[in-house]
Amino acid sequence: MKRHVILIGAPGSGKGTQASFLVKNHGYKHVSTGDLLRAEISKKSVLGLEVKAVMDKGELVSDEQVLKLLEANLNLEKNVYIFDGYPRNLAQAQSLGDRILKGSEFITIYFEIDTTGLVARLTNRRTCKDCGAIYNLLSQPMKVNGQCDNCGGKNILHRDDDKEDVIKNRMNVYNNAIQPVLDFYNSKSKLVRLSAESPIEELREKIVGIISN
Ligand code: AMP
Q1: Per-residue model confidence (pLDDT) at position 42
Q2: C-alpha span between 147 and 156 (Å, rounded)
Q3: Would you call 125 a catalytic residue per the annotation?
Q4: Residue with CA at minimum distance from ligand 1 atom 1
């Protein structure tokens, strides 16, 4: 039986790119709390209207709001998940265990990276609104500018929070809250550290090795 996979890493460390590969080739379902929240904003739901300003500043949405949204979108009986962007602090790590996974097997993979280089990576990040494919104008551009290589869609987004001052705040928020999460999983022997500075394919192979164990 496959274990759920929790990806932890700074914004822009490559979690989303690796998650798409695992979904395509290894049968996981991807759950990104950032994507779920952005979908609420697009729908202009009550939650979406409440969280927009918080997200635009790069701050964290409240633990309870994110947890409820997650609970409403998961089916643990049917699917094996890759958690991307959750948990982001110790309280969320505890809720994930107690209220969502409830004893299901999982492994946590930590994408270790120096966050100073990530600002440039994120200002150049673009995402396909239709299929979620991620591009970087410098290192991984679309073959035809403005058109997704994967699905041909033309809704290529520059996220509102991928702007320099907001990115810097998101890095601070991440760095301030993540250490207790790492300690928590490490103390349960559930943490595998990977260098996210490695090339995408190398990282991919290492992750496949970890999830197959
Ligand atoms: P991401 O797409 O993971 O970079 O998340 C974008 C933004 O969504 C973050 O800067 C937060 O404002 C919000 N967000 C995403 N996941 C969480 C979470 N687990 N807890 C609180 N806020 C979150």
Answers
A1: 93
A2: 7
A3: yes
A4: 34
Find all residues with CB under 8 Å of 108, minimum gap 6, and list them.
5, 6, 7, 8, 185, 190, 191, 192
Residue bearing the CA closest to ligand 1, atom 12: 55
Atom number of ligand 1 nearest to Cα 38: 8
Mutate which of 88, 92, 119, 158 to test ligand 1's pocket (most atoms within 8 Å of Cβ)? 88
CA of 6 to the centre of ligand 1 (A): 15
Distance (Å, rounded) from C-alpha 52 to C-alpha 188? 35
Long-range contacts of 89-96 (CB under 8 A, 24+ apart): 89/60, 89/63, 89/177, 89/178, 89/180, 89/181, 90/177, 90/180, 90/181, 90/184, 91/63, 92/63, 92/66, 92/67, 92/181, 93/180, 93/181, 93/184, 93/185, 94/184, 95/63, 95/67, 96/6
* pLDDT for position 117: 86
Taking the alpha carbons of 148, 151, 152, 158 in that order, is the dihedral positive or negative?
Answer: negative
Q: What is the pLDDT of residue 116?
A: 86
- The pLDDT score that the predictor gives to residue 1 is 66
Measure the CA angle with vertex 178, ends 174 and 181; round to 5°: 155
> Taking the chain (213 residues) in consecutive chunks of 10 residues, what is each chunk's mean pLDDT?
94 94 94 96 96 97 98 96 98 98 97 91 93 91 96 94 94 97 97 95 96 90
CB atoms within 10 A of CB 154: 12
